[in-house]
Every structure is written in C-alpha cells, then in structure tokens.
C-alpha cells in the first residue's frame, strides 16, 4: 500500500511538471526574439489550429510573425510588414495590454494561407494575458467572434 501511494504521488508530481508554467517574471520575455509557432482558436465545440510553423513550406516563412519585447515597446515582423506598439503590464502579474499597433504598408507577395497579417494584428491588439510555459511564450487573446485565441512563440 505504501509503495502504491509513493508511485501515485511521484506520477502526480511528474505530470504537474510537464505542463507547469514557468514562474518567471516578464523580464524573462524581454530582449529575446520570439517566433510564432502556433495559433489556436478554441470555440465551444472544437479546437482549431490555424497556424503551425512546422507546416510552412515557403523558404521566406522563417522571418514571418516574430515578436520582441523591450522595456515598454514591442514589435516584430508580420507577413511581410514590420509592426510595433507600446505595451503595459497590469497589476495582475500575467495581465498585459498592447496599445494600437503601427505597421509599415508593404504589399504582401505571400502570406500563410490560414493566418493573414490583418488577423494577426487583430489578435495582438486583443492580447490580455501572457504566460511562460515550458520555455514558450503564450499570449492569450480573443477573435472578433469572442472565441479564445492562443498565440504560442518559441525563441
């Protein structure tokens, strides 16, 4: 019985570590180049991945949808335009607000099929919370229908 209890406790601890959020401050996010690896939309009935970096086949896709936070500004490259905006952290350690985005206005010769630049900007504009989990930056947002959007970045 004692061995069973030890195995149960050990399994619970290991499972918790696999998905545990990093207890880092936002300073762990700043000063690094992050690349969007996945965008997921959760509705009441399904979970849909609309962007997966692993499925991109274009050679120039390496530089799309990047993000960098510095002091009070954030910015990066969308597809193909560069963007930036001021941001502020809320009193709650995980809350964040991104002010209106500014971007260049180059015409896109290519964009990922399921994530258009304007949609990406809209998701970024609605970001309300951040998290570091397993070395990845996760930004939580909403789409225009009010569904949860999760943008996951890796550096």
Write the layout of secondary structure elements.
Layout: H1 2-19, E1 34-42, E2 47-52, E3 66-70, E4 73-77, E5 82-89, E6 96-98, E7 102-103, H2 117-125, E8 129-133, E9 136-142, E10 148-154
Antiparallel strand pairs: 1-2, 1-3, 1-10, 3-4, 4-5, 5-6, 5-7, 8-9, 9-10
Written overview of the protein:
Helix content is 17%, strand content 37%. With 155 residues, the chain is α+β, with helices and mostly antiparallel strands. It has a single domain, classed as Lipocalin. Strands 1, 2, 3, 4, 5, 6, 7, 8, 9 and 10 form a ten-stranded antiparallel beta sheet that branches. The protein is globular, with a radius of gyration of 18 Å. The N and C termini lie far apart (45 Å).
Descriptive tags:
10 strands, disordered N terminus, 155 residues, alpha+beta, single chain, 10-stranded antiparallel sheet, Lipocalin
By CATH, the topology is Lipocalin
Task: Supply the CATH class.
Answer: Mainly Beta
Low-pLDDT runs of 5+ residues are 3-21
Architecture, according to CATH?
Answer: Beta Barrel
Average of per-residue pLDDT values: 83
SS-based structural class?
A: alpha+beta
Terminal Cα separation, in Å? Answer: 45 Å
Q: Could you tell me the strand content as a percent range?
A: 35-45%
| Total domain units | 1
Computed Rg: 18 Å
Number of helices: 2
The coarse silhouette is globular
What proportion of the residues is helical, as a percent range? Answer: 10-25%
How would you characterize the largest beta sheet? Answer: 10 strands, antiparallel
Number of strands: 10
């Amino acid at each position: 019985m004692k061995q069973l209890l030890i195995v149960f406790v050990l399994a619970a601890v290991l499972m918790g570590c696999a998905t545990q959020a990093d207890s880092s401050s936002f300073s762990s996010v700043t000063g690094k180049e992050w690349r969007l690896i996945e965008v997921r939309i959760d509705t009441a009935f399904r979970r849909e991945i609309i962007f997966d970096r692993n499925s991109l086949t274009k050679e120039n896709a390496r530089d799309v949808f990047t993000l960098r936070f510095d002091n009070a500004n954030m910015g990066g490259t969308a597809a193909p335009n560069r963007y930036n905006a001021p941001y502020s952290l809320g009193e709650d350690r995980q809350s964040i607000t991104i002010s209106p985005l500014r971007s260049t206005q180059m015409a896109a010769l290519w964009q990922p099929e399921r994530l258009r630049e304007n949609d990406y900007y809209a998701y970024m504009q609605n970001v309300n919370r951040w998290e570091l989990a397993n070395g990845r930056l996760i930004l939580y947002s909403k789409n225009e229908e009010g569904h949860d959007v999760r943008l996951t970045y890796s550096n």
